[in-house]
Amino acid sequence: MNWWRQRLGSLVNAARGLCLLLRYECHAQLQLLAVCAVTASGFLTGISVSEWSVLVLTMALVVSLEALNTALEHLADAVHPHHHPMVGRAKDVAAAAVLISAFASVIIAGLIFIPYWCAGAG
Fold first, then answer.
1. CA dist., res. 61 & res. 76, Å (int)
2. Of 99, 25, 26, whose CA–CA distance to 61 is shortest?
3. Catalytic residues
4. Does CATH number 1.10.287.3610 belong to domain 26-121?
């Protein structure tokens, strides 16, 4: 029974982290808004199961990288509260990972949705 309690505790901690991310991080809030818009568009457009799979993985990647970026920023600030060039570089590179995934997600969404929307307009 102790093993199950530990797993449940881990799940509770992860849920708390997700709540903190969405409550305090404005970029995560914008990404959640984008997830809602893409999800609504997917339902309205009637995309396929495989297209849903790609979109869900893409959205999860962006939000997960935002969570990792936020965690790295908080950890770096705790370890070195004053500005340090190497800490700044690490934060910038972590933010770049989020940006790269966000750009890729826009391209993927375009590749999925534009053919449907063009076919519907014609």
1. 22
2. 99
3. 66
4. yes
